Amino acid sequence: MRLAPIIPLIIIVSLLSTAFYFTYPLLESTLSPLNPRNIENLPEATDIPTEIQFMPNIRFNHNNIAYRYELGCESRKEKMYLAFETLQNLSSQISFYENNENADMIISCSEENVEKSENIFLAGEGGPSKTFNLSINPLITEGKINLYDRQNEIPCENPVVEIHEILHVFGYNHLANKSTVLYPYYHCDQQIPEEIISHLDNLYSQEPKSEIFFSELSATKQGEYIDYNLEIKNEGLIPAEEVFLIIKAGNTEIDKTNFSTINPGNGKVYTVQNQKIPSKNIDKITFIVTTTSLEHSKENNVQIVNF
């Protein structure tokens, strides 16, 4: 027999990221100080991935990408601007703008002349530096580009190295075709592959959405009281706004809780003890989670526990 009065114990815990931040090793563009006259004479690259991206469908959650420069990049800005302009003109979805406060892409420059092997010098590095490994679209929240001194190069009119590194920030792998800007060794005549622009436009034409679901749920019943523990996660690209948890015993609503916002890759845990239900004969509890944000699917927004 339970003692009176019964006071429900409600504990709400906001979690840190339920998916982890990770950093890719920044990917390299290299050059030979002799800079071959013909693309065919570029060094042979090995270990080229077969996948077009580091992770399938990895992307930012918006199309207008902000960038900023670290100190020491004054001499590189013109080429970087041309690279951004070139990609923006080719893409129907992506645009770029400079923002020193909230940048998606951080560009740093070094006067260091880095020789990776005999007669092979490092021109630049780039890639996603902060990401969430989400189930539908892995999310890029920050990318970095490092540009190095190229005193041994023959200058290119086209910003092939800069474009190469920007595409790495968008998650694209090296390609085995020597005529493309994503080949590991660069040449002034390399071009941007149509397949990359097509893939980029297709990926960013898809509206980013949230995706909330019950990642954990358990409940027990004793007489006219239930205990339950659950976790709600957001595996979508955008925050899930105005998230509500509704719990029904039979057809009667017994709890409605506002979780406010759940950001991408984050979750919230909700634990309740001694929740009164209308009758000890209730044999079904329905858990419903809702959001005002767009979702990929609502099929996993309802869970039922039968006793």
Please provide a written account of the structure.
With 307 residues, the chain is mostly beta strands. It folds into 2 domains: 184 residues, Collagenase (Catalytic Domain) (3-Layer(aba) Sandwich); 98 residues, Immunoglobulins (Immunoglobulin-like). Helix content is 11%, strand content 38%. Strands 2, 3, 4, 5, 6, 7, 8 and 9 form an 8-stranded mixed sheet that branches. Helix 1 links the parallel strand 4 and strand 5. The protein is elongated and about 85 Å long. The N terminus is likely disordered.
State mean pLDDT (0 to 100 scale): 86
Rounded to the nearest angstrom, the radius of gyration is 26 Å
> How far is it from the N-terminal to the C-terminal residue, by CA?
20 Å
The percent range for strand residues is 35-45%
Name the quaternary structure: single chain
Pattern of helices and strands: EEEEHEEEEEHHEEEEEEE
Q: Supply the CATH superfamily name of the largest domain.
A: Collagenase (Catalytic Domain)
CATH topology of the largest domain: Collagenase (Catalytic Domain)
CATH class of the largest domain: Alpha Beta
DSSP strand tally = 16
Under the CATH scheme, which architecture of the largest domain would be assigned? Answer: 3-Layer(aba) Sandwich
User: What count of domains describes the coordinates?
Assistant: 2
